[in-house]
Specification:
The chain has a four-stranded antiparallel sheet with strand order 1-2-3-4, with helices on one face. The chain is of the alpha+beta class. A hairpin with a 2-residue loop joins strand 7 and strand 8. It is built from 14 helices and nine strands.
């Protein structure tokens, strides 16, 4: 069947051999003067017309013709090698590669990017859910594919990002587990004299993340004003301890310290100076506020194990150091600290995030608002 023009550009016809609808667009000529034509196909005329329109738009935007031989696996590898490794931290890049190696490539790796559809992406997510992967894991799988296809889109390898047009599974609302005031006091009491007493108390009272607290240097503290500047985080990457920027731009922040914590940090600095003098050349000067017994940075994994034993001693059950952050937020809100202030102290990207995670703590405050209106109008 002869092709016909669609909106004056591109040919659309139904192939007689398999009854597929085909769309063809002329992209000019190669170096030998031969015409360059690219095609799309679909089982329905409407879908073929939609793909044809996208192909025409790609040509009109001055983008090169799509590579019909590029597979999803090849795209992911190219994206990792040419862009991902230079744009994100090494640990993040490795995490992305692990996701697409174990979840995307096995199912979609051989499929050509040009023929990838929303249905393919939806089937990928459905398969992951059927394998009892969590909603957050499935959303990460989709997010990796979205970013890879965005790279392909910018490179002109595809005309549209089909993964971005899909929707990930809804996330169940997750509220952070927090220490009760009684548990917090028992933990505080049991920490007396412990090597990391000041570190844990700082995390509990300010909500600093574990990496943020371990990444503090003395230059970040202004104890005369009672302020700590959160500028970096300490983490393990590629088998080594490294410092990097904070988790988000909003995480870079100033936090005011409670008066007892200021005093505790001053005492901690004095003890550290004594240890440095006692060890002499054996001391490794790192500049960190919290160090090992010889001055080296504290491995976050070691802190996790240490905190488990601390909680056992306090008889409060098993807790993760990150839950000190949740506890700090909940205790602040329970004491009537405004939500916006708590959000700023935590370094959240938005107040909405704070409200979503800690909304359950605000129930008494919301009831107080309702009671206030009752008193204003009915009493």
């Amino acid at each position: 069947m002869a092709g016909r023009r669609v909106n004056g550009d591109g040919s659309l016809y139904q192939r007689s051999s398999d009854r597929l609808w085909m769309g063809v667009v002329h992209f000019g000529y190669d170096t030998r003067g031969n015409p360059i034509r690219k095609s799309v196909s679909a089982r329905t005329k409407a879908e073929a017309a939609k793909r044809l329109t996208a192909l025409v738009r790609q040509r009109d935007d001055g983008l090169p013709p799509p590579d019909n031989r590029l597979t999803v696996k090849d795209l992911l590898t190219r994206w990792y090698d040419e862009e991902l490794r230079i744009q994100v931290a090494r640990s993040t890049a490795e995490n992305y590669r692990s996701i697409f190696t174990h979840h995307i490539v096995p199912m979609l790796g051989r499929k050509t990017v040009a023929n990838l559809t929303m249905a393919d992406v939806n089937r990928l997510m459905t398969a992951a859910l059927d394998e009892r992967k969590s909603a957050s894991t499935v959303r990460r799988i989709r997010a990796v594919l979205v970013q890879a296809l965005d790279y392909a889109l910018r490179e002109g390898a595809v005309g549209r990002n089909v993964a971005a047009l899909t929707k990930g599974p809804k996330m169940p609302r997750k509220e952070g587990r927090t220490l009760t005031p009684d548990q917090a006091k028992r933990l505080h009491t049991s920490l007396a004299g412990h090597r990391y007493e000041v570190l844990y108390v700082l995390m509990l009272t300010t909500g600093l993340r574990r990496g943020e607290a371990l990444g503090l240097r003395w230059e970040d503290l202004d104890l005369s004003r009672g302020i700590v500047m959160v500028r970096r985080q300490l983490k393990r990457e590629g088998g080594h301890l490294v410092t990097s920027d904070t988790k988000t731009a909003k995480s870079r922040r100033a936090v005011n310290l409670p008066a007892p914590v200021i005093l505790a940090l001053r005492d901690h600095r004095t003890r550290q100076k004594r240890a440095r003098l006692a060890l002499g050349p054996a001391w490794h000067e790192s500049g960190f506020v919290f160090t090992s017994e010889i001055g080296t940075p504290v491995d976050p994994r070691n802190l996790y194990r240490d905190f488990a034993s601390v909680c056992q001693k306090a008889k409060i059950g098993k807790w993760h150091p990150h839950e000190l952050r949740h506890s700090a937020a909940s205790l602040m809100l329970a004491q009537g600290v405004p939500l916006q202030v708590v959000s700023d102290v935590l370094g959240h990207s938005s107040i909405r995030l704070t409200a979503d995670v800690y909304g359950h703590v605000l129930a008494p405050a919301r009831q107080a608002a309702a009671d206030a209106m009752t008193e204003a109008l009915w009493t």
